[in-house]
Amino acid sequence: MNERFDEPSDETLGRRLAGELPRHPAPARLRVAIVEATPRPRRAAWLTPLVTAAATVMVLALVALPVIPRIAPADPVDRYVRAVVSEHARTLMWGARHGEVLPAALPWLTEQSGIGLSQVFVGDDRLTFVSAEPVYLERQRGVAIHYRDEDGHMVTYVALPGAGVTVPDRARVQVDRYRPALVRDSGFAAWVWKYGDVACFLVSDMVSADDVERFKEYFVRVRTNTEPVPAY
Q1: Each residue's pLDDT tens digit, 186-226
Q2: What is the CA radius of gyration of the chain?
Q3: What distance lies between CA 147 and its chain's CA centroid?
Q4: pLDDT at residue 154 above 80?
Q5: pLDDT of residue 68
Q6: Which residue of 102, 111, 159, 191 is 20 to 30 Å from 170, comparing CA positions?
Q7: Contact criterion met (CB below 8 Å) for 153 and 204
Q8: Residue ranges of the domains in the chain?
């Protein structure tokens, strides 16, 4: 009778060898040799120049960004209005630079601003005079006069040399016998008109429908009683 012997499986043989054969740790020099002989992944040749170029562009952008000029409106009226609104907002936050009183300060204002005021509105029961000061806007010297109404609205009148400024017809509004332009910028409203070669602005935060009606009254009071002229 023939006996049949089953051959051990690979898995069984592997367990027997692992359990019965003695184990010896590999020498340290052998491990070092194996690591050194193993090929290391190579960095793509194009990667280093690309990273260097990207880093250079980022550095140049960080250096140049602070000196890149902001995009300014092309229309002179829009530029002037933006500058006047910025000056008005600065006054709202920090007050006028000078607290000069009219009409006593008129000679000094004329000398500093280059704008003479042959007649000037000094306030009434609706608008209280706050202060007057010379300003420098759009590379032009001018004068600013600040008022405050009964509800606390600050109203700023600014006169600047404006020989090259044209009041836009599309924005004109009939106010009493005058037709100034009403221009809005950054939450403020500004009346714009010309008095000879002087560009005049009256700016406030009065932008709602009811406020604009009162703002019209303020414009008439200031426009009727203020006559700016170039001093030089």
Answers
A1: 899 999 999 999 999 999 999 898 899 999 999 999 999 99
A2: 40
A3: 27
A4: yes
A5: 47
A6: 159
A7: yes
A8: 11-65, 76-230
What whole-number distance in Å separates Cα of residue 128 and Cα of residue 134?
Answer: 19
Residue 102 CB: number of other CB atoms within 10 A? 16
How many residues are listed for the chain in this entry? 232
Question: What class, spelled out in words, does domain 76-230 have in CATH?
Answer: alpha beta
